[in-house]
Amino acid sequence: MARKLQIVLWHIPGKIEKVEAVVVYTAAQIKHRITIKTLIAWMQQLLDTSVVRPTAISSLKDSQKAAVIQIIWISPYDQLDSTGRIASLPEHAGTDDLSLQFLTASEDGTVAFWNLKLNEKWRMYKKKEPSPREKGKAKRPEALTKSVSPFKILDRVFKPCYILLVQHPNESRNVVITTVTVYVPQFQKKRLDVGPPSPDVTVRRYFENIVEKPDCVMQPKIHVGTVEGDFGCVTWEGYDFTTDLAVNTEKCRWCWFKRIHDGPVTHTVRSRENRTWLVTIGGKIFAIWQEDLGVPLFWNKSDIGFTAVSWGSFRPTILILTRLDGTVELWDFMVKTEEPCVLQSLSGRIITGIYTHELPLTPQCVGFCDFNGILRMFLAPATFFETDSACIEWMTNFIQRQVKRVKNCREWLEKWLETNYKEIERKERLSKEAEKRKRQEEERVTVPKIVQVESLVEPAKKSLKRWETIQESRKKWEARELKHMQRVLLEKKGLKKDVLEKQREPILKLGREKKRKKQKLRQTLKMQENIFEHTKSLFFPKHQPETRLTVSVPPITEKFDEPITVEDTILEEEMMEMQRIDPNEEIICHFMEIQAKVLANLQKPPFEYSFNWKNIFKNKKTLRVTMDTELRKLNKFKKKVVPVTPKY
């Protein structure tokens, strides 16, 4: 794996033995070696047994376009062909017939499958046999040709056999992949050497793979984590026929997609006890998933970001996490699930990886990779080696309870959404808006086509006169020269257009605000008459003239002999009240008369403000000279006055 977009292949059979082998030379050989080294001291040493050099590098043209972040080997009994279909090899297949394939995930949003099987396609790159004329030449010694790897023919021509594109489910762009995981069954290991048990983990032990076909077949599913904190499962179908392309490419389909992390998903690890249990870390959150369920079964958030994660080797209830501050968290869900059981600081800075040994060693060791590239090995406590069926059963029941809880919540939510009429109305409104948006997009696409057809029918433009053509060409040339001068000035001063635009944005914003305020003020001035009338009608309602009721009273004949009754008195009082004027209306009328007189007087002699800068400058300059003269006199007087010390 390389950061320069290419795959690097090492073929190491027999290389480790050469590094560890101790070569014994005779006295004559030592003498000749010293003599040769003195003669060729200017040459670079080409062959060094302590360095294992790469065998082949993939083709730069056909490799992925960004950094490769993960490599996963595919099961030898599963094979992916050039059409993207997975085939299972028979159980009785020989060791030479097994597949040699692996997949790589890149930050450009692609997953590539590679095949190391040396078939006829790669044989064409092998060097040709020497011609009959060259057969008479001396052959190379066997020692020089024996160490050449058969995979050397893949150097610079190695390319993937199938590529998957992982696009965002809601957008037409590739996601930035940060981690992937695929279930690959491991072979059982059998120890070859027989010796007494030793607590020293540095003692070398020899194991051998038991090559047997596993019970399960690889499924076309890959769990993917992205830089945006998303985690999901993608699948592909493959092609029914072979295409003429050099490398077949297919867009993946998301089975489920969920965002739960507050940072890039950096690690995804499967449990050894159950292949469907996954744990992911991203940002400050770690989550436990089941591969066929698109919701986390359990998640927890820390105050500090996580950097690595690993399941326990012997007990499935144990989870090991490392943080940015160099602290290791040890979770045992059988003890408690709300906080870690053990917190231990191993380093003052970032721990970049946790590596548990795959072999059943006693005692078990755990490796922690530090920020400076040091791998430190620790012996795990003896309590973590204790495992029994009860522990596995408890973890299985715990996961099943969480799955049941998640499914019940999902069913309840679906039923609630079906019965909630507000949510139904919202969905209908959203669907209508989507249809409307789709219709507008279709119209937007069809309109340019219509315009293009109409433009073809338009008559040809009239030819310009010679002087008009020259003038138009001169304007275009001046505009082009102006742009060129601006670009040259920016390059000479080391400025960037984007940076200048960002620096200019606040000034443009102030200009837009100023323009908006001026426009608003202009509109206000246009409406001043309406505002005045509205204010006047608000504070001073219209004066309605008093309606005086006149009551016709018949002439009273003097009849002194008739007495005055109470009814006559009440009638007279009511007539007097009707003849009176309301005092509030009288005040308003008086104010309106005075206001009209004052406004008329103000309009007769208009106020003119006269300002003459020369007169103001002359007057103030004279005042300044006068003040300076007085200040000079005062300073002279202070200098003449001598303080007298009192005598006691």
Give the helix/strand layout:
Layout: E1 8-9, H1 15-20, H2 27-39, E2 56-57, E3 68-73, E4 78-80, E5 86-88, E6 101-106, E7 110-115, H3 120-123, H4 142-146, E8 162-165, E9 177-181, E10 188-191, E11 207-210, E12 221-226, E13 230-235, E14 248-251, E15 253-259, E16 265-270, E17 277-282, E18 285-290, E19 298-301, E20 306-311, E21 318-323, E22 327-332, E23 342-345, E24 351-356, E25 365-370, E26 375-379, H5 389-419, H6 421-457, H7 466-492, H8 497-526, H9 528-539, H10 566-579, H11 583-603, H12 613-640
Parallel strand pairs: 8-14
Antiparallel strand pairs: 1-2, 3-6, 4-5, 6-7, 7-8, 9-12, 10-11, 12-13, 13-15, 16-17, 17-18, 18-19, 20-21, 21-22, 22-23, 24-25, 25-26
Helix/strand/pairing category? alpha+beta
The overall strand count is 26
**What overall geometry do the principal axes of the alpha carbons give?**
elongated
Which blocks of ≥5 consecutive residues have pLDDT under 50?
453-459, 545-562
End-to-end separation? 101 Å
For the CA atoms, what is the radius of gyration? 47 Å
As a percent range, the share of strand residues is 15-25%
Mean pLDDT: 79
Specify the helix fraction band. Answer: 25-40%
User: Which quaternary structure do these chains form?
Assistant: single chain
The largest β sheet comes out as:
5 strands, mixed
Strand line-up of the largest beta sheet: 3-6-7-8-14
Secondary structure tally, helices: 12
Protein name: WD repeat-containing protein 63
Coiled coil: 417-444
GO molecular function: dynein heavy chain binding; dynein light chain binding
InterPro entries: Dynein_IC, WD40_repeat_dom_sf
